[in-house]
């Protein structure tokens, strides 16, 4: 069976089969089924923005290169020893697993939050594609500090891209996944080409030259904060926090033959979140040495991080195509998944129309460059909000018996709303978000404490609630 057919099989089953039953052994897949999937999914539109944004935060060479090595390793370990372990134990989707613990009504709330955040992420990717489409029209590119649409050309291009992406996504995941599967090798090749061309433009002839591109780092650009190695480690660890410690990828790894398939996420982390981020950062390193960028910095303004012009400067028309495809392949499945989340709330609407609704929200978000220009902050917030939900699943699985609580309590007690979950999540969210804002602490630094507290509180509140119910 080809790689595409295997991936299509997994996604088809995830969307239409075994939604409320464990995946049977006849449908289990080997680790090869997940390798290409993760490599392709994590070398996409977001990478064209994230790499340059690291440079705007003034990171040093050591902090970027070593920080990404450590942070991505921690992400892989989280997938391997938490997500895939639990996935192959129960073989349930995240939504059904969560429903059995916290009740249907709380899962509806989770779906709403998940769907809205997916739409905003897709909107950022529509913005990415628009920066490439706008090059032939000599469109003014959004600046790093822009929040509002910067002109009618921008608005028209974003609306057209958003409409096309939404219509394709609404046709179903078979169309989306097939196109993305064909485009992923092109995008990965483009990242490699951009990296090598940028190295040549920077005059790199050896490792010392490469290391000196960032040197000891610099002051952050206007409106940005200074990133240290710890910012890089924790941000890269929790960039996909909703997927691993947040347990979203239970829906994927429930098809794995064994938990060791979790190691395949390294393909995504070190092709996309390492190679691609550094390649994109190199593109920006070339740009900020230009007279245009230096003039902006001298005037106290932040140079644009628009991916389209950066890639075009390196590899020409191929760069434009790559950025369009990268944004498209990220936005399309993201809008599709947002539509599925909304459909759980509005089951009477067809998949087509809930996807169109999600695409409309994403397109509106794409009009505002802030979602892309502040992608580091948005991704940190996304992980902070959703990751603690996964702590409830993790703590119940590993510590539920030792704590003496009934597993899958909402299902067994027949309750639609488990107050232990909302109390644990709410208290951990409010406490650590307040700490982050009040003391100006980087949000990714408090994601792990919030996750741990949420899981621990859930055990305590469950113990109290279940004791009263006896």
UniProtKB/TrEMBL annotation:
It comes from the Bacteria. The keyword Transmembrane applies. The keyword Transmembrane helix applies. Keywords: Membrane, Transmembrane, Transmembrane helix. The chain crosses the membrane at residues 61-82, 112-133, 153-174, 186-207, 227-246, 267-290, 310-331, 352-372, 378-395, 415-435, 441-461. GO terms for molecular function: cytosine transmembrane transporter activity. This is Purine-cytosine permease-like protein. It comes from Saonia flava.
